[in-house]
Design the sequence.
């Protein structure tokens, strides 16, 4: 969400994904996809820079090493539990035959 200020100095938060257009007549008018119009104090360039920084923050958080480390730890645990607890099939020669990891059902 980005922060914008209405003409009566009320602070409002707008989801930038819902913005259809920004028009600069003497005042800045934002049109949302549901047809609502809002007149705000910020200029179009300022709103665009806020949208860009909002999306950059999302991309930055999505690529953070903390998230990747957490996901790899979860995947490592899933792999260990499925490979250690799988049922082994004994073939006619008395040898253990294991099913491939990708064919096991979870």
Sequence:
């Amino acid at each position: 969400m980005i922060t914008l200020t209405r003409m009566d100095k009320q602070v409002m938060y707008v989801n930038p994904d819902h913005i259809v257009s920004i028009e600069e007549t003497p005042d800045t008018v934002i049109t949302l996809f549901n047809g609502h119009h809002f007149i705000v104090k910020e200029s179009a360039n300022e709103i665009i820079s806020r949208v860009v920084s909002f999306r950059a923050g999302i991309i930055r958080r999505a690529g953070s090493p903390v998230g990747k480390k957490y996901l790899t730890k979860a995947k490592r645990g899933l792999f260990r539990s499925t490979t250690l607890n799988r049922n082994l099939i004994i073939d006619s020669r008395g040898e253990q035959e294991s099913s491939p990891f990708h064919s096991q059902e979870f």
